[in-house]
Amino acid sequence: MNKKDQEKQSPLIVAQIMGKWVGGGVESVIMNYYRHLDHSKIQFDFICDEDSTRIPYDEIKKLGGRVFLIPKYQKLPKYLKALEKIFKENQYRIVHSNINTLSVFPLYAAKKAGVPIRISHSHSTSNPKEWKRNLIKNILRPFSKRYATDYFACSELAGRYLFGNKTFDRGEVKIIHNAIDIDKFRFDEVARKKLRKEFGIKDSTIVIGHVGRFVQQKNHTFLVDVFEEYHEKNPDSKLLLIGSGPLEDQIKDKIKKLNLEEFVIFLGQRDDINKLYSMMDIFCLPSLYEGLPVVGIESQAVGLPIIFSNGVSREAIISENAKIVEAQEVEAYIKKINKIVQGDKQRIKQRATTTISENMSIKKEAIKLEKLYCRPIKVLHLISTSLFSGAENVACQIINLFKSDNGYDMKYCAVIGKNKPALEIRKIPVLELNKFSIHDIKKAISEYNPDVIHAHDPKSAIASVIASRGKKIIAHIHSNHRYMRKISIKSFIFHFYIEKMISDIIWVSDSALNEYIFNKRINKKINSIVLRNVVNPYELKEIAGNDKNKYSFDLIFLGRMEDVKDPLRFINIASQVQKSKRDLKVAMIGDGALMDEVKAKINALDLGKNITIFGNLINPYKILLCSKILVITSRYEGTPMNALESIACNIPVVSTPVDGLLEIINKKYLCSTDMGFVKTITTLLNDNGLYNKYKIDLITINNGINDISTYKRKITELYS
What we know:
With about 725 residues, the protein is of the alpha/beta class. It is built from 31 helices and 25 strands. The longest helix has 18 residues, at about 690-705.
């Protein structure tokens, strides 16, 4: 892709699920990343609860983003309905949920809407003291991976908490640090003096600072207890509290009762926290639990001595100035504070030279996040047979269509047998199954971890639903199967599973869709589209060029030696044509259960000199190009690949009136009876003018049906 093409590309829009936006740490983290991403590549849509209070609309708009307000999750039916509507209307490739255990709800809606990449991001853990909140968390936590395709966490502790030790140890959880703009968070002695003067704080006064929402998790009550005892013995000290929240009034009442109003400063929500850190001497974070607190990173970057509780991840310690207090006891905190104050005579000079790990640099982590967002969509093409025929050919064509597209990574997944040479000549990347079983399919899915499973027959679709959890599944129906047109065990089982878990169904023809026994019910619940097969003539002719042999045939049969293709009828027709054309040359390509009967019938009709059986060929296209007429005797089809290939090669087709050909082939070349076949074939072989006119017509037909770019666009829409 050249520079101009890149410039023309629209940015990838990521839907960020934010919950109730109240100006907390998670919102700060996501906005921090948003500010530092390349907005020509990545943009955010923020989806927030309608009772949010501190959404920075102006900044989001300026950066190129949008905000959607939805009912809060407590109104679950309305919440899910609103989410699904937004997801479908905007066709997101990625939904990134930042609401911890509650992510199961938006990711369920994303799965239902067909979003291929669904990220669950763990920003926190839990604490036994919050028993009401923990009740909900513990109920929802087992479902944390149910609808997610990717697992993110701000720290190891947060990752293990939400996704489990096994998932973390397998390396499936990606750590995205709560990084900061290191250049912004530097100690500023000028700001220290200015702010202390503004708030009437002497240079000698010890200022203990805290930044965080007034909620139980942040443990303000305990912090006030610590300050009360410290202040009693050290009167020249103050407590600086930055933030707001539901417990703010409660904390103010407590301070009033303790007669500490003169010594405790409430600053509410501030936009200059980077400057306020400079006026502090000690930062105290006694939280009951944390993931990787961004305020802890910021305060260390400014060079502040910081005291963490044991509820904070050890990963938060990124400088020698940070200490963890193991016990939630007032005396333990007092000892740490005293030790810091007594031993930190040169703290101001030291703070000016403090450095922290580059892993906490927002510039570095933003590039990391950008790469994760822009990773290819992984598509697993699941096929239930080890043979190679129409459906398998379509799967290969799709894989090759996307081979040069960096946005996709695809694998062909099947038992490898007779299909091996055909896959090799087409250079198809394969994920081999030992056998087509739920166990082996589960193993393949676990190994490859696809975003999309493209199942190329009803059996594969059912197996995909059973074997996978949370994956986007597309069922591709390549034929108008008889059992799908009536109430049968197979059609009922297919219906039972697809109604629950499959997001889209591709039907190869109108007939296949309209004649499906449960089509009216399915169409109400699942996105069904008719997408006729196409052929890339350039790819076909390139493969044909690998065969250096010379051929010359009047008729060709190209398909499986199975009842559905009716090769025995083809032989009967060839026998009748041969009566008027003694030197008739016929090619039969394929293999299957009827092969012995085919050979026996050829011998019985004494056609051995006229009919050449090639068996199953990985490259039948040179023979096709050297034949005059393709004859299709199938009992039913979707849009047969052999017909499309023949049309692409400008080889006339005479066929039974099968579904997909009814709309593209002149009806005079669609035959219901053997005598109709014989008459049509004989006429074409003997009338050069008519034959050449048919070939000219095929050019127009090919231009209309083999529209590769439109086909790829429609497939892309389904994937992303």
